[in-house]
Structure formats: C-alpha cells, structure tokens
Specification:
The structure holds two protein chains of two kinds.
Chain A lengths: L2 E2 L1 H15 L3 E5 L15 H5 L4 E3 L4 H13 L3 E5 L10 H8 L2 H4 L9 E6 L14 H5 L5 E3 L4 H13 L4 E6 L8 E2 L13 E4 L4 E5 L3 H14 L4 E5 L2 E3 L3 H11 L2 E8 L4 H13 L8 E5 L7 H7 L3 H12 L3
Parallel strand pairs in A: 2-3, 2-4, 4-5, 5-7, 6-7, 10-11, 10-13, 13-14
Antiparallel strand pairs in A: 1-8, 6-12, 9-11
Helix pairs in contact in A: 1-7, 3-4, 8-12, 9-10
Chain B lengths: L1 E4 L9 E7 L6 E2 L4 E6 L4 E5 L4 E6 L6 E3 L3 E6 L27 E2 L13 H10 L17 H19 L10 H16 L2 E9 L9 H15 L5 E4 L4 E4 L5 E7 L2 E3 L2 E2 L7 H16 L13 E4 L19 E5 L3 E7 L2 E15 L5 H16 L3
Parallel strand pairs in B: 13-16, 16-17
Antiparallel strand pairs in B: 1-8, 2-4, 2-7, 3-6, 4-5, 6-8, 10-19, 11-12, 13-14, 13-15, 17-19, 18-19
Classes of the chains: A alpha/beta, B alpha+beta.
C-alpha cells in the first residue's frame, strides 16, 4: 500500500474510476498534456487517451457548460477549475443548469458532474487563487459540496462524488495537497457522502471544521489536551447537505462549540451551523458558541496570509473563553 | 545547462533595461543571491538568482534592453529541477505522515447527553454556585429551568440552617422564629437598604409623655409628608402602591420570636386609642393570642428596641414595605443650648429605607418630619 499525498490521492481516485467506468471524462485547462496546475491529472492522458482527458480552452463558462451537456447525456465528466477564484464565469452554468437539471426535467435527467477545484489560502499565491467560497455553493439548492481533508478522504470522497448521480462541487484544500502522506488503499472503496467524520473524541468542547483548517484544529486539540481540555474534532467533509445529527449529538455531549473555517465570517457556513445549534441544542449549551474564521476581506498576499488564516492560537483562545463558563 | 529567462518584473511589463550586473561569468551563485539590477518602466529592481550554480553566460550588457521572457543568464548546473507541482504559489511539502488516528464516520455517541438547562438557569447556577447535576429538572424534556435552580438553592439553604452545618444538639426552627428567618433572608436578598440615623431632642417634652404614641403620631405625619415611605414595592414587576392610610407594624419581642402586629389606620386613631392598641398587642403577643389578621398589612414598621437596650441600629425592612423606623434608648446628654451647656434628653432614631423604591431626599425629609413632630409635641 503506497503512501501518497492528497493530490496524489485525487489522481489515484480519478484513475481508478476512469478504469472502472468508461463514461468518466476528465477535462479542464492544461489538465491533459501538462497534468494540471497542481499535477492532479498527471499521467491520465497517457493512460486513457485524448478522448477522455480533454485540454479545454481557457474559458470556465464553456468548461462547465460542456460538462453539464455531457452529464445530461449520460457521461460522468469531472471538470477541473484551476483555482476557486476562476470558477465565477462558470456560476451561470453551475447554478442555472447543473443544480437544476433534475428538478427542471422532473427527474428525467440528472447531472452527474463533479466540478473539482483547488481551494483555500496558504500557498503564497495571488489573491484570486486563495478563495474559500464554499458558502456560495452550499446556498444553492441542488448542489452537493464536498471538502476532503486528508489523502484517504480525498480518495474515498472523490470516488463517491463521481458515482453520485447529482452535481458535486469538490473542493480540494491546496494547502494540504502535498503537506503530508498517508497510506491509501487503491481499492475503489468510496467513503459515505453527507456524513461528518469525527477525527478525535472529546468531552469538553466540540471543534467543527473542514478542509485545510482541520490541520490547525487538530493541532489546537492536541495543545488543549496538554492543558487538560478534551476537544472533540469533527471534520464536516460534506458541507451541503450538512450532517447536523453528528454535530448536534456532539454539542449535546460537550455543551460547547467552536466552528473554524477559513472563509470570511459573514454568512459563512459557520453561521448556518451555529444557527442550527442554537435552534436545536440551545439547552445543552454551557457557553455561547463561537466562530473562528477568516476575515471579511479579500485574502491578502503571501506576507499577510498567515494572519488571515485562523491560527492554532485563535482556536485555543476561543476554547479558553468557552471554558470560563462552568 | 539551464537558462534563466527574464521574468515579468511588474504587471505585464514587456521589457527591462540592465543597469548593473552584480555577478560575472564564471561566478558560482547561490539561490536568492542578487544577480542584476534591472530598470523597468515602473521601478528599479534587483533580480535574485532562482538557481544555484556556475554562471556561464550573461545575455546582455549594462544599458541593454532585455525582452520579458528572453534569456538573461545561462547556468551550468547538474541540478535537475524538480516539478514544484504548481505553476502558481508554493505548496508546503513534508515527509510528515498523515495520522488519522481512529476516525469515526459520523459521531461518537459514547456518552449520555450532558445536562439540559435554560441559558438563564446556567447563569443563575453559576452565580449561586449551584451544581446543575444536583438540580431536579421540571421543564419540558428534562430541561432545568431558573426556578429549578432557585428551588434547589432554597432547599439547600433550609438544609444547611437546620442540620448540615451545625453540630451538637439542634432544633428545627418553628413558627414565628422560622417565619422570621425566612422573611429576614428574603429581605436581605431583595431589599437595597440604606439606614440614616439622627437624634431627636426630647428635653422640652412634658414629663410623663407617652413616647411610643408620640412616635406613632410622628410616623403618621411623616407618611403624609412623604408618602413614598408609606408604600408597598414589588421588585419583580417594579410596581409600587402608595397608601393614604397608615398601617404601622409594631415590632414586639417575645420568647417565641419577633411579632409585628399592625396598628391599622393609625392616622384615624386618637392618642388613647393608640396607647390602648399598643398595650393590647403587647399582652396578646406574650399570651400568644394575637390574631393572624392583626399580623398582616403593615405599610411601615416601628421598632422600639431602645426599650431594652441599644442606641442605633440598621433595622431590616419586611417586604413589601419600604421603610422601618427604629427608636433607640433615650438618655440624658450634655448639649449646647444658646451658647450654654445644658443637660438635655435625646432619643436616637434609625430609619432604614429601601433605596429601590425611595430616594434619599424622600427618606431624609421623612426623618426630618418625624423629628420636628416629636420636638414640637406638647
């Protein structure tokens, strides 16, 4: 069993499913010959040929439109956007067509497309390469939004996303692409969608996060343990639909909750999670829940990036504030 | 061999001019070592070396213009450039192992849910230092309410006063003494008391004056002057009821405990009637025959503790009333009068008022009226 990085896990899942299902097509800018901006699709052209691994023109609206058409006709396109900040020209196709195909045709057609894109800050890139705007997509009925946070979850969740009959926005935390390696069995086993992953069990506070922030959150949980505070860490993984059952059960147990996300505070997915906690678990709360998030600004350039991304310290500070309530 | 092409030194600049080379052909350079000073349309910038190695050729001389993307320097290097895995930015790489530990798909569900309590109940429990796990919940679905916390607190207070903290032989408080304990504790929790003290000069009072009756009459007069002290106050609804009639509670000591029989409509009673009532109450208290209805409805209270001993005090208000007047022991003192020392007689007064319902001005004017009434009594 090979130890691979998150981006290699993406590659491995794509290759596995292309092998298993001839309907799977990958497409995007520079993904074929060049292997993609982060090399997520490297080697696929040689293996599966130019009919299934398509270099597209630099036109995101067209990429999405093409994918929607293919999906409606029974193919399973996996379209890559080079960066999340480049996805906006494709919003019309995604929101007005991909997300509505099933509803518009009263279930006659579905749209089994996966839109993949690197996501998040932390790689010293210019600003529109650092977006985390998962909330735009989570707000749109008909879209599933999935964010892996480890090589094994990237593999298992991407397989599940490709096999899902409806459109999936698959957001790959670029900060974690090559951060660490993990043994991932290339056995084609998908992980379940629409369910959280509890990465660490604890009794005092529930830390809810996803994507690259899992890294800082796990580090914070470890530091807190040294200070005698037992933190449960939940990787939401599927942002939409949200597995609130898991989150609520944990919050009812611990009575305290901090949601951590890299995206800006206002109207972020953390707002939705806290709203549901207040609606459904208010009487279990021992302390007002908190959010530790990016700021309501454009993600700054490389030198200020580390101040934008929620730090381990900010997470620990929030937990300590919550622990002041008995 | 590796060629370093002139990068775009700004946003979309087509070319740049060599100002000065910092290196020569044949030099061995390190990564990030400044190579050359280039002047663009926007600025002069130093270009750092992207590679380590020996320079074999400089593609241009000072003051020559190099197009963006054209060769700038040729290196001799054995280094094979690794694919950075990104054309934009810089990915963090490490040999770290991703340790997922025991990932649970879904939640842990290992422990029974923690205590459910209204937020207000949690705050109250924290203030009163109550352990919520000890509180009996009466709210829907096992929810602890603020009232549950209060009830728990009251029960635990009762337990403490009767047995938990006392050693040796104990007796449970009964009857009036028990009521006193509860009423005083309630007053202490709720009332915001202020006590003002002053001496009243009784030197000119005719001998054998009935001081108790005079004080009762002075209270009636003061209650007319400052009705704010002849009032009931509800701290929860923040409502008050100002009375025209004056029902004076008379604190009477007994071995059983403190009784406060009420002289109803004191404003309508003559001196003789007042004296008669005081005597009757004293008798009925010591005989334990005082009727329950006579113990209710005081709008203001008089404590004549000076009959026993004591000058000043901080008398405790019995809610919902807002004032209590205490009379200390009268005594002879040397006092100045018209520039001379004379022997006079004074009685110390202590007025406690509930500052939630009564202002300092109202209270001091009330006390002033009592004093003025007593000093002008014939």
């Amino acid at each position: 069993m090979a130890e691979i990085t998150l981006v290699e896990a993406v590659n491995q899942a794509l290759a596995y499913e292309m092998e298993a299902n001839p309907d799977v097509i990958v497409m995007g800018e520079d993904i074929a010959k060049n292997g993609g901006v982060f090399r997520a699709t490297v080697g696929l052209l040689d293996k599966f040929g130019a009919e299934r691994v398509l270099d597209t023109p630099l036109a995101e609206s067209m990429i999405a439109g093409l994918a929607v058409g293919m999906a409606a006709r029974g193919l399973k396109p996996v379209a890559e956007f080079q960066f999340m900040g480049f996805i906006y020209p494709a919003m019309d196709e995604i929101i007005n067509h991909a997300s509505r195909m099933r509803n518009r045709t009263r279930g006659r057609l579905t749209c089994p497309v996966v839109f993949r894109t690197p996501y998040g800050a932390g790689i010293h890139a210019p600003e529109h390469h650092s977006e985390s705007t998962e909330a735009y997509f989570a707000h749109t009925p008909g879209l599933r939004v999935v964010v892996p946070s480890s090589p094994s979850r990237a593999y298992g969740l991407l397989l599940a996303s490709i096999r899902d009959p409806d459109p999936v926005i698959f957001l790959e935390p670029s900060r974690l692409y090559r951060y660490a390696k993990q043994e991932v069995k290339n056995d084609g086993k998908a992980l379940p969608l629409d369910v959280c992953f509890t990465l660490r069990s604890g009794d005092d506070v529930t830390l809810v996060t996803w994507g690259a922030m899992v890294k800082e959150t796990l580090a914070a949980a470890q530091s807190l343990e040294a200070a005698g505070i037992s933190a449960e860490v939940i990787d939401v993984a599927t942002i939409k639909p949200l597995d609130m059952d898991t989150i609520l059960a944990s919050v009812e147990k611990t009575g305290r909750c901090v949601v951590i996300h890299e995206a800006p505070l206002t109207c972020g997915v953390g707002a939705e999670i806290l709203a549901q906690i207040v609606e459904k678990a208010l009487f279990s709360l021992k302390a007002p829940p908190e959010r530790v998030t990016g700021f309501d600004t454009i993600v700054p350039y490389a030198r200020l990036e580390k101040y934008y991304i929620p730090s381990e310290k900010r997470i620990i500070d929030a937990v300590n504030r919550l622990m002041e309530f008995a | 061999m590796k060629i370093f092409h002139l990068p775009d030194l700004g946003e979309g600049l087509a070319e740049a001019e060599i100002r000065e080379w910092y290196v020569n052909e044949g030099d061995v350079v390190k990564v990030d070592q400044p190579l050359v000073s280039m002047e663009t349309a926007k600025a002069v910038v130093d270009v750092p070396s992207p590679y380590a190695g020996k320079i074999t050729q400089l593609h241009g001389k000072a003051n020559e213009i190099i197009k963006t993307g054209a060769p700038l320097i040729t290196y001799e290097t054995d280094e094979v450039v690794a694919d950075k895995g990104s054309v934009v930015g810089k990915l963090e790489t490490s040999e770290k192992k991703w340790d997922d530990g025991d990932v649970i798909i879904g939640g842990t569900k290992t422990r029974a849910p923690a205590i459910k309590a209204m937020p207000a109940a949690r705050v109250l429990a924290q203030q009163l230092n109550v352990d919520l796990s000890q509180v009996t919940a009466t709210g829907p679905q096992g929810l602890i309410t603020a009232d549950d916390v209060k009830r728990f607190m009251e029960n635990s207070n009762e337990n403490k006063s009767s047995s938990t903290q006392l050693t040796g032989q104990t007796e449970a408080l009964r009857g009036v003494r028990r009521v006193m304990a509860q009423t005083m504790a309630q007053s202490h929790r709720e009332v915001v008391p202020v006590t003002i003290v002053e001496d009243v000069d009784l030197t000119d009072l005719p001998p054998k004056s009935d001081i108790t009756v005079l004080v009762l009459k002075a209270i009636v007069a003061a209650a007319k002057a400052e009705p704010a002290l002849n009032t009931w106050f509800d701290g929860k609804s923040l409502e008050r009821k100002v009375f025209d009639e004056v029902h004076i509670g008379l604190a009477v000591d007994s071995t059983e405990g403190l009784f406060v029989p009420v002289i109803k409509n004191a404003e309508a009673k003559s001196d003789q009637e007042l004296r008669q009532m005081v005597d009757e109450y004293k008798k009925s208290v010591s005989a334990r025959t005082v009727a329950a209805k006579d113990l209710q409805g005081a709008t203001i209270t008089l404590s004549n503790f000076g009959m026993i001993a004591g000058r000043y005090a901080t008398p405790i208000i019995v809610p919902p009333a807002v004032a209590i007047l205490g009379c200390g022991r009268s005594r002879d003192v040397v006092m100045p009068r018209n520039g001379q020392m004379v022997i006079g007689r004074i009685m110390p007064l202590s007025l406690t008022f509930d500052h939630r319902a009564v202002t300092g001005g109202e209270a001091t004017r009330f006390l002033g009226t009592v004093i003025q009434q007593l000093q002008s009594a014939k």
